[in-house]
Write a structure and sequence with these properties.
The protein has about 150 residues and is α+β, with helices and mostly antiparallel strands. It has a single domain, classed as Electron Transport, Fmn-binding Protein, Chain A (Pnp Oxidase, Chain A), CATH 2.30.110. The chain contains three helices and seven strands; from the N terminus they run αββββαβββα. It has helices at about 10-15, 60-65, 135-150, and strands at about 20-25, 35-40, 40-45, 50-55, 70-75, 80-90, 100-115. Strands 2-1-5-6-7-4-3 form a seven-stranded antiparallel sheet, with helices on both faces. About 25% of the residues are buried. This is Pyridoxamine 5'-phosphate oxidase N-terminal domain-containing protein. Pfam families: PNPOx_N (PF01243). It comes from Paenibacillus albidus.
């Protein structure tokens, strides 16, 4: 693991300003244990601020409201990055989207290379939409536009 930085480098910033997915780790509000969920509604506002949106039906909303300490795991640049930060509600509910969502801003506290020594990712993981692609594209467009306005 390498020394921590306090903000995103140019490559991570660019990566998080286009469609990607990450693992969001929170502290479960009920059990107090760790939990991780893959999300794709994430956007880097600046090198020190990330915005993400979560459906209100997700436990993640309450988890981040109760304990704002989170880790965002990003797969890219041939490695795995762990971004630690504090989440705060930006807009609840997020405006101009078809169902109830909560938008959070994450103030970045540290960015670390989290891949074990001597390894490099051969390729970044990819995902495929398994429901109506046009509906997914429309919803993603609405969510990202609303996140950028929030």
């Amino acid at each position: 693991m390498s020394e921590a930085l306090a903000q995103l480098n140019e490559t991570l910033l660019s990566m998080l300003q286009s469609e990607t997915f990450v693992l969001l780790s929170t502290v479960d509000a009920e059990s107090g244990g760790p939990t991780s969920t893959a999300i794709s509604w994430i956007y880097a506002v600046s090198p020190s601020l990330i915005r993400l949106t979560v459906d209100h039906r997700s436990r993640l909303v309450n988890n981040m409201k109760v304990n704002p300490l989170i880790t965002i795991t990003v797969f890219g640049e041939g490695t795995v990055h762990a971004i630690n930060g504090r989440a705060a509600v930006r807009q609840d509910p997020l405006q101009d989207v078809p169902f109830k969502m909560c938008c959070f801003d994450v103030e970045i506290e540290a960015v670390r290379n989290a891949l074990f020594y001597g390894a490099q990712l051969a390729s970044a993981p990819r995902y495929a939409i398994t429901y109506d692609g046009r509906a997914a594209e429309k919803l993603d467009g609405q969510v990202f536009a609303a996140m950028q306005k929030a």
